[in-house]
User: Fold this.
Amino acid sequence: MERIYLTTPIYYINAEPHLGHTYTTVIADTLKRYYQRQGAETFLLTGTDEHGDKIAQVAKENGMEPKVYADRISAIFRSTWDACGISYDHFIRTTDSYHKEVVQGILQKIYDAGDIYFGEYGGFYCFGCERFYTEKELVEGKCPDHKKEPTYIQEKNYFFRMGKYQQQLLSHIQSHPDFIRPERYRAEVLAFLREPLEDLCISRPKSRLQWGIPLPFDSDYVTYVWFDALINYVSALKFRGEDFFQTLWPWANHLIAKDILKPHGIFWPTMLMASGLPLFERLNVHGYWVMESGKMSKSLGNVVRPLEMKERYGMDAFRYFLLREMVFGQDATFSLDSFVARINADLANNLGNLVSRVLAMQEKYFAGVVQPLGGVWAKEDQELREVFLQAEKDLKRHMAEFYFHRALEAIWGAIDHTNRYIVQTSPFVLIKDSEKRGRVGEILHHLLEAVRVTAHLLSPFLPETAHEIGKLLGLPQGTSSHQSSWGKSFLAGHKVKPPKVLFPRIELTAEG
Ligand code: ME8
Assistant:
């Protein structure tokens, strides 16, 4: 893999960043760091989706002009990702002028090619979803999402001949098994495509809605919000020039949750086909985070906010939980109890204790000075190194599938082995025998290598921790060195730092 272009959804600005947004953004960041470490050229895009009825309404409720409101909330998203250490390369806003130009260019192109036509349409419109529903899709006459009766609207609008591309999309999905993954979401899109695909209404009359990008061929209309939003993935690259777009676009990997599968799995590829652009490489779909206490909502007071989590427990602890707890593609439950249990067990105990024990022994027995390794390694030393080699191989395999939880399990398998190695070799017993001092030095040298490689493997997932461990080991680029250099990375006389608590145990108070 030489390149990867990762995208998160551009988030609506009618809510502030929460657990769900953070999850998608954190996995995008983890993937970027992971591929970057492999030497790939990477680009990570996130941003905000600012047009449409919903935003116009919320802005009005807050007594603000839509753009003023958009500026405010978009800035909150951006500063949140900055504070969380998300390594995005570009933050797009659909109100940015270069984006509007690209949207209008694409609309004009499709219109000129005859794939956009003007027609009359009557249908049940849900303002919450900003879309028309067919009678069949309604549940007891109500929108299945908002449980509200939709409004019947009859109006003239522009339509995109989406149905024309149904067969082409079907063949693409069938001949590219990885185009949409995991499999269950691919199957879901294929199921949609078993029914005839209707044309897509892509405009809203300005008499009803003004907050959108005007159609280039009819100024009485603005673009439907999804048609505008999806194009962000293209306009963000075009902003840096056509060459940049050409280089990265074929490597586009979209990350979304299952809620927006249809626009990404059906609208978007057919829009690309109609505009003569190549398709993205892959659509990667994850499940939903649900709260143990029910749906996350302001009224229930159970919204998990990334900055609060970071301040209380540290960003790496939050990242660890998100990545370890959810199986990519399936839903996962969030509760503070399970969060605390995981952090205490995996981070405070297994990882934190390992690093402290090793550094404490190095400090106590050798004043922090790394001791030489003998020419012949003991069986358990060889085995320790091999366990890490295997963990790296497993990690690579799991990352290719986006199985972050398994990738972390692989690292923790090696950490557990290292803790067992300490028990097995018992340097704390050997040190009492002055003739065994040389062997203790070797054991600790291997343990320092294990800690170094752990930090290296952890760096895409827990970047701050990896950096912190690198500093304790006193290696200038502690986490970037590879394990092929096991036994060669610490020069004789090198001094490591005394231990430090990386993850304090969390004790929950009554308030959490
Ligand atoms: O749909 N669990 O924006 P949005 C997991 N603007 N992920 C969640 C989640 C949850 N409970 N809640 C939100 C939009 N997400 C459009 C997108 S893209 C061209 C336009 C995450 O603010 C997840 O990534 O409603 C989901 O797909 C996205 O936020 C929806 O964000």
About this structure: The chain has two domains: 3-286, 311-485. The CA atoms of residues 350 and 512 lie 23 Å apart.
